[in-house]
Amino acid sequence: MFDNFPLWPSRASATAGNVDALFIFLLIVSGLMTLLVFTAVIYFAARYRHRKGVLAEQIQGSTPLEVTWSIIPLGVFLVIFTWGAVVYFKSRTPPRDATEVYVVAKQWMWKLEHAEGQREINSLHVPVGRDVKLIMTSQDVIHSFFVPAFRTKQDVLPGRYTVAWFHATKAGTYHLFCAEYCGTAHSGMIGDIVVMEPAQYEAWMSGGSNGPLSTTGEKIFAELGCVTCHRTDTQGRGPNLQGLFGKPVLLQDGRTVPADENYLRESILDPGAKIVNGFKPVMPTFQGLVSEEQVNALVAYVKSMSQPGATGAKSASNGSPEQSGSQVQ
Known about the structure:
Layout: H1 16-47, H2 63-92, E1 99-106, E2 109-114, E3 119-121, E4 123-127, E5 131-138, E6 143-147, E7 152-156, E8 162-167, E9 172-178, E10 190-196, H3 198-205, H4 213-223, E11 248-250, E12 256-258, H5 261-269, H6 292-304
Parallel strand pairs: 1-5, 4-10
Antiparallel strand pairs: 1-2, 2-3, 5-8, 6-7, 6-9, 9-10, 11-12
């Protein structure tokens, strides 16, 4: 019924219904409380209005009434909190097998690259009925990836990754906005999410690309000399990256951190921030030497080395240890 309501965006994702239901519940509760308060104000203003010759009586209070108006709102607030927490965690926890798309925001456009290698600007093609995970970063200022039809909004920050996901349920073209004021042309930072039937999507995807993003990352990995240090044997000056992604990493200071996308990104751009236990801080920084798209490709490559059947980084056949490359530590 709400799809035809002129002030209500179309619902086109699996989580949109839950978000709408919670929002409607909040509106109903707020409306009822507002009606109750104003009804009480009007009633008491009329019932206890000033009358000539009638003296006011001091009321000491009512314990049952005070308990009632404390317990009932508490119960309502607990329902709202629990319901909101369930919706929040579900919307913030992408499924493990979701299709990955890397997003780079910049003034004033969206640059998107599929794990399969297809690149887009201000447009994202996805199949209906499939989970899509967005791994996003900003090239300059804070942006916000907002798709009203999916009830999805996530800030996109410079210097780190943020993640959002959706499961499109209806084919069509839906608006993409930046919901964070990001400069003079903020209103023009818009785009489209094109949800296609699976057969149409496969035909679009086969239209040509530069190869999988992980393959691009492997080439960059070799060009930067990273294979010199990150070997699959025990001779490397950097940690073995085979099977690293998603595993806990013990640091030199005794902390343990997960090897997620943000850890890999930080290790490329600021390798001295987290030193792996047993290794020395010899890796140079690649800050300013690689673009955001190249960082995404490197991250995708390291992630691919943790997938079943991955062969990992190739051992360097030549080159001295002094030619140290990307050392994720």
